[in-house]
Amino acid sequence: MKVLYVSLAVVIIDQLSKLLVKGFFVPFLNFNIEGMYLGQMIPLWGDFFRITFVENPGMAFGYDPGNSFKLIISIFSLVASIGLIIYLYVIKDKSLTLRISIALILGGAVGNLIDRTFYGVFYNYAPLFYGRVVDFFDFDFFDFTLFGRSYDRWPVFNIADASVTIGVLILLFFYKKKQEPSEIKKDSKINETSTGNLD
Is 135 marked active-site? Predict the structure, then answer.
């Protein structure tokens, strides 16, 4: 289960980046990081790439399902994370590529789950499980419409989101590559059978 170190690394980097963006204070150490104010933008590569501090109230792409669904989303994320840990144990002897992809998805899921579960309490604005996810990577790719909303920039995201996306892409690529040889093998067996019948 050494692959869980990948998940742990994602969670640590994700949370450190979010705390630096949002800011935090440790009273007993008298340690304070100011962070950014909500909506603040820091251009890093002109208008194409900037750090923009926003808080996602609900799901991906800033979709807000409303307060009544926030608890359900948080609990679902918790159950899904536990499920992914169990699944990693089940596939411990499988391909490293598969395990890394699942570990990346797990790390991203836990990273955002921490925000939803604890940030409301930690920053004193909401009860347990009702926190908002901190997002800050802001790219200008192309205009598109999703869930009835039009976007002139890519929705602001974080390291946890990126980790989940990379994990899913690796998973899709892994299975596509795995299926191609099996399909070729299957086709060759069909050809051999049909050739044998002709003989």
Answer: yes
What pLDDT sits at residue 174?
83
Q: Which of 14, 115, 135, 138 is catalytic?
A: 135
Which sequence spans correspond to the domains of the chain?
4-57+66-198
Place of tokens 């933008």: 41
Active-site position among 14, 115, 138, 161: 161
Q: What is the pLDDT of residue 151?
A: 74
User: Among 70-79, 139-148, 184-193, which range has the highest average pLDDT?
Assistant: 70-79
Give this prediction's pTM.
0.84
Concerning whether 64 is annotated as a catalytic residue, the answer is: no
* CA dihedral of residues 50, 113, 170, 156 (deg, nearest 10): -20
- Distance spanning both ends of the chain, measured CA to CA: 52
